[in-house]
Amino acid sequence: MDYKLIALDMDDTLLTSEKSISKKNKEVIKKALEQGIKIVLCSGRTHNAVVKYTKSLGISGKDQYIITNGGAIIENLAGEIIAQKTMTNKFYREFVKFIKDNDLQYNVVDNQGNTYTSQRNWIDKYTIMQAYENDNGLYFKEPDQLPNDFEIVKAIINGDEAQLDQISEMVHKRFDQDYFVVRTGVGFLEIFPKDVNKGEAIKVLAKKLNLDLSSVIAMGDRDNDIPMIKLVGKGIAMGNALPDVKAASDYVTEDNNHDGVGLAIEKFALK
């Protein structure tokens, strides 16, 4: 198969546990780009937390793309937004009430990558990590302090794995009907607009580029990667992926600390 586009999850897929890109992965991605294959970083991260990696890979310009915020925003690397889906301030208020009623920790992110929370007494480490990655500051605001037309791209409930395991069923029961709820990484249970996920975003981008989905490869490791892994021509799970991700994939490569991405691109895409 002649693959034209490779969609890569970042954390625990392209990136090692130290949040770096291995030499092998960089070399193989460079070869793929030279062959005219589009490499699309497809992440739950926001713009700032993705573009620093595209720069290190030499991916730039109007004809290269990133998918951020779990599929809520598709943009080119000239900074133009191709598509975006957001949630209203009405939802934001309902979400914060749910958080306070259940004594949970949270943050939300707007389409500029700004991080907001209303909790001041104690801020959990995952909210601080989110703000640090977003590189846009952390704002302490109640929903009522923000404009009525204020919108967000995702809402995040934070906690360690045991805490999130304990509340997952309750959160799904409350929000599944109207939104997409998914664990995106250790410490992050995220809520997106109903039809937002990495698979839907790839579908939109492939249509824009006039590419058949059979000519797309997608790689990932967690539940939020399953929609794209099941959708494309070749869905690849990392060696460190969750069992459900491996079950949904066509192939399991090495783990993120042993060049899994580079080895899979070599095997399936390079000529």
Automatic annotation (TrEMBL):
One of its GO terms (molecular function) is phosphatase activity. PANTHER family: HAD SUPERFAMILY HYDROLASE-LIKE, TYPE 3 (PTHR10000:SF8), PHOSPHOSERINE PHOSPHATASE (PTHR10000). NCBIfam families: Cof-subfamily, HAD-SF-IIB. InterPro entries: Cof, HAD-like_sf, HAD-SF_hydro_IIB, HAD_sf. GO terms for cellular component: cytosol. Gene3D superfamilies: 3.30.1240.10, HAD superfamily/HAD-like (3.40.50.1000). CDD domains: HAD_Pase (cd07516). This is HAD family phosphatase. SUPFAM superfamilies: HAD-like (SSF56784). Coiled coil: none annotated.
